[in-house]
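Wait, can you check?
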Amino acid sequence: ASSSEMFGKVQQVPQSEETLLWPRSPYGVAKVFGHYTTINYRESYGMHASSGILFNHESPRRGPEFVTRKVSRAVARIKLGLQDEIVMGNLDAKRDWGFAGDYVEAMWLMLQQDEADDYVIATGETHSIKDLLDTAFTIVGIDDWAPYVRQDPQFMRPAEVDLLIGDPKKAHEKLGWKPRVAFPELVQMMVENDLNEQKKLHGV
């Protein structure tokens, strides 16, 4: 599992399998090492080893330390009166968010190929953190989220990755893969799951 974070300071929009890697975090640097190690073993020893360059893949199982789940859980708790606000960092950062279930299917398809290769797995769409907030709060009937969102410098990355958007053309053509769950459906799935979870936890 490679990562879109390898692209970091992006040198091409959208990002494909040929885009220069320029990671901006220790996580991204580590993923670059793993990515090239996979290629090296494939080329050196003929191993059937593929790298899925996975863009942000989300689901209700996502940990609350990730921004999508942080938002979906906070929105659910705000709606239920269990929380007053959500504290965020950069609201203008843009990501290519997809459903993890779709991405697992892509990984399985990679393993069914006669020859191993590397593939960008992405939706080809990008949304900002503001878009995420708009969508999540609208699901619970809150049109103006500004009173519930506070920015704090401690959540700003020292080396921000401003824009990630993948070019999944190769996966479309060689794997026959396309994502099935759109961004609004994904956010709704996560918010509704957190609403149900919080209701059970707090008896509301």
Summary: Strands lie at 2-3, 51-54, 57-58, 86-88, 94-95, 98-99, 118-121, 127-128, 149-151.
